[in-house]
Design goal:
The protein folds into two domains: 39 residues; 124 residues, no CATH class. It has six helices and four strands, in the order αααββαααββ. Strands 1-2-4-3 form a four-stranded antiparallel beta sheet.
Length: 171
């Protein structure tokens, strides 16, 4: 019995070494692809939160939600000093909170709670992102730099820490 385990041991080592080489080759291929082509930033959205479904049910609500978007003021800034980079993020959570605030002194808010406004906020932010990408496709000379710096982050994406998690547009 002891003899059979000794015969299996070199075979197991050889298989493990072969698997390590294959993993190394695959990792190198992926890294080479990323450095030559870059990382694909356009993540396809589910139908429910895509531009196709943005104003399908209630166009008035979609337009009212678009009016609540203010990327210049409400985008959060995250600096990475070690990289010398500043990143701006406009998240779904930010718009969701804005949709629960009264529109004006005479108008009530669009939604009663952040939970009820979450889907509309996700649709709206995703719509803004896809329109920005579409502009870059139509006029690449003017918007090429902008399209290269835009990225969609899904709910589990993270830049720095817990405060940056959540779906949104990273610029």
């Amino acid at each position: 019995m002891m003899n059979t385990t000794n015969h299996k041991e070199p075979s197991a080592h050889a298989q493990a070494a072969m698997a390590m080489r294959a993993a190394h080759v695959a990792r190198k291929r992926v890294y080479d692809d990323m450095t030559t082509r870059g990382i694909a930033k356009h993540v396809p959205a589910p139908d429910r939160t895509s531009t196709k479904g943005f104003a399908a049910k209630d166009p008035w609500l979609a337009l009212a939600a678009l009016e609540c978007v203010d990327i210049e003021i409400e985008a959060t800034t995250h600096t990475f000093e070690e990289l010398g980079v500043a990143v701006f993020k406009y998240s779904v959570r930010t718009l969701s909170a804005r949709l629960t605030q009264p529109l004006s002194d005479t108008q009530a808010s669009l939604f009663l709670s952040m939970r009820s406004s979450a889907l509309m906020a996700a649709k709206t932010v995703r719509h803004v992102y896809e329109v920005a990408l579409e502009l870059a496709t139509i006029d690449p000379e003017q918007y090429l730099e902008a399209s290269q710096s835009l990225e969609w982050h899904g709910p589990q994406s993270m830049l720095k820490g817990r405060e940056t998690r959540g779906a949104g547009v990273v610029m």
